[in-house]
Every structure is written in C-alpha cells, then in structure tokens.
UniProtKB/TrEMBL annotation:
Pfam family membership, one: DoxX_3
Transmembrane segments: 7-28, 48-66, 73-91, 97-115
Native organism taxonomy: Bacteria, Pseudomonadati, Bacteroidota, Chitinophagia, Chitinophagales
Source organism superkingdom: Bacteria
Organism in which the protein naturally occurs: Chitinophaga varians
Protein name: DoxX family protein
Keyword tags: Membrane, Transmembrane, Transmembrane helix
Length: 127
C-alpha cells in the first residue's frame, strides 16, 4: 500500500513540474510566468530564460519519475521551490496566482515532497 501511495505522490509531484515548466513556461500557457522572469531577471532575455527554466522544470519531472537519487532530488526540489517562491514573494507578489499566499502553497508542496521522501515512505531499520 505504501508503495502505491509513494508512486502516486511522485506522479503528482512530477505533474506539478510538467505543468509549470512545459505548459506554463515553454508553451506560454500562462504568460505571467514570463512577466515574473522579466521582473526578476530583466526583460531583454525574459523569453529565452523562461524557456530554459521551463525545460529544466520538465527535466526535474523526469528526475522525479526515474527516482534516481530520489532523496537528493527531493532536497534539490525543496531548495529550488523555496528559493524561487521567496524571490517572487519579495519582487513580484502582484504577478503571483495567490499573491503573497503563493509562499504558503509552496511550503505545502515542499512538505509533501519531504513527507514522501523522508517521512512516510522511508524504511525502518533495526539496529
């Protein structure tokens, strides 16, 4: 049962990266993502940087699904999500879907990643 839950949670986590990376950024399904990048990194190369970020987020989804070094993957995800959201919280809150509350959503996402990799699914060892 735990393995099935772990599998579905990983699919959900990967889906977040795919939707935000490929749909929102690469395919420009949500143009405010490029506006956020422009506000933070400058408008000259905002589209190119948004594409790069989007493809990297797509690769993060692949990493999640492949489960190679999954705990390292979780640490990297948590670091990136918190870093990105704190910067957006400070620099572009008016462009965020939930405004400054986006940080709360990001924290819950990070808690889900942490719970999946370090809490719920971990195996117990007997000393």
């Amino acid at each position: 049962m735990k393995e099935r839950i772990h599998k579905y949670v990983n699919i959900a986590i990967a889906a977040v990266w795919i939707i935000n990376g490929l749909y929102c950024k690469v395919y420009n399904g949500v143009p405010r993502h490029q506006q956020i990048v422009a506000r933070i990194l400058g408008s000259d190369y905002a589209r190119l940087l948004t594409l790069a970020i989007g493809w990297l987020e797509g690769l993060m989804a692949v990493w999640v699904l492949l489960a190679i070094k999954s705990r390292w993957c979780a640490v990297v995800q948590i670091f990136l999500v918190l870093t990105m959201n704190i910067i957006e919280f400070l620099v572009a809150p008016d462009l965020l879907l939930f405004g400054r509350m986006n940080l709360i959503v990001a924290i819950f996402f990070c808690l889900m990643i942490y719970w999946d990799q370090f809490g719920f699914y971990r195996t117990k060892t007997v000393a």
